[in-house]
Amino acid sequence: MRMKQQSYFKCQPMCEVCQKKLAISFSWVRGEWKFTCDCTSSTEMYFVYIEDFFASTAACVFRFDELSRKSWMDWLSFGDMIYRFIDAASESVVSTGEHDGASEAEFQKNCLTYLEGETDGA
Q1: Crossing angle for the helix pair 57-68 and 104-119, nearest 10 degrees?
Q2: Distance from C-alpha of 48 to C-alpha of 35, rounded to nearest angstrom
Q3: CA–CA separation, 11 vs 64, rounded Å?
Q4: Is 74 left (phi over 0), alpha (psi -120 to 50) or beta?
Q5: To the nearest 10°, the Cα dihedral for 3, 21, 113, 118?
Q6: Local confidence band at 114 (pLDDT 50, 70, 90 cut-offs)
Q7: In this predicted structure, what is the pLDDT of residue 110?
Q8: How far is residue 76's CA from residue 69's CA, in Å, rounded to a whole number?
Q9: Which among 46, 55, 103 has a CA at the least distance from the CA of 76?
Q10: Burial bucket for residue 75 (CB in 10 Å: 0-12, 13-18, 19+)
């Protein structure tokens, strides 16, 4: 059973699947990316702890590299999930507005820009 918690945002969103517990991971479940609690642990194909994903710029880049090697990776679904997560997790940490299908490169740049701000003490 997964027990990690994340603490990089003003609030920790609820699991998109069960809406009963706080989300602790980004999960590829039933053909789409969701931020989830442990309720998907028996059905997800892949997961990344939210805490680990945002641990550092290097950690984020490592995960992007790892995910880019997965034949099933859906970048648009992942980007949409990240935007939903950021919107749910904070009101002013990152201003995302509506996600309009930003390209993979734009999404990665936005994520890295955010993480650099976090590590620079911004």
Answers
A1: 160
A2: 10
A3: 24
A4: beta
A5: -60
A6: low
A7: 59
A8: 16
A9: 103
A10: middle
Whether 90 and 9 have beta carbons less than 8 Å apart is answered as yes
CA distances (Å), origin 8, targets 32, 70, 119? 24, 27, 11
Distance CA 84, CA 16 (A): 10
CB within 8 Å of 22: residues ≥ 6 apart: 5, 12, 13, 14, 15, 37
Tell me: the pLDDT tens digits for 4-40?
A: 444 556 778 899 999 999 999 999 999 999 999 999 9
Q: d(Cα 25, Cα 51) in Å, to the nearest integer?
A: 8
Q: What is the pLDDT of residue 55?
A: 86
Give the Cα separation of 73 and 91 in Å (integer).
29
CA atoms within 13 Å, Cβ hemisphere of 21: 14
